[in-house]
Amino acid sequence: MSNYETKEHDVVVIGAGGAGLRAAIEAASKGLSVGLVCKSLLGKAHTVMAEGGIAAAMATVDSRDGWQTHFRDTMIGGKYLNNWRMAQIHAMEAPECVIELERWGAVFDRTDDGKILQRAFGGHTYKRLVHVGDRTGLELIRTLQDKGVHSGIDVYMECTISRLLKDDDDKIAGAFGYFREDGRYILFRTKAIVLATGGVGRSFPVTSNSWEYTADGSSLAYASGADLIDMEFVQFHPTGMVWPPGVRGLLVTEAVRGEGGRLTNKNGERFMWKYLPEALKDDYAADVKEADAWVHDTLSGKLKTDYRRPPELSTRDNVARAIYTEVTQGRGSEHDGVYLDISYQPSSRVKKKLPSMYHQFKDLADVDITRGPMEVGPTMHYMMGGIRVDADTAETKVKGLFAAGECAGGMHGANRLGGNSLSDLIVFGRRSGRGAAAYASNLTSLPKISESEIKEAIEELEAPLTRTEGLNPYQLQQRMHEITSTCFGIFRQEADLKKGLDLMEDLKEQIKTVRCSGGKLYNPAWHLCRDLKNLAIAAEAIGRSALSRKESRGAHSRLDFPDTDEDQGHENTSIKKDGDRMQVSKTPLPEMPAELKDLLKKKEATHA
Ligand code: FUM
Question: Which end of the chain is more exposed for a tag (fewer CB within 10 A), N or C?
Answer without folding.
Answer: N
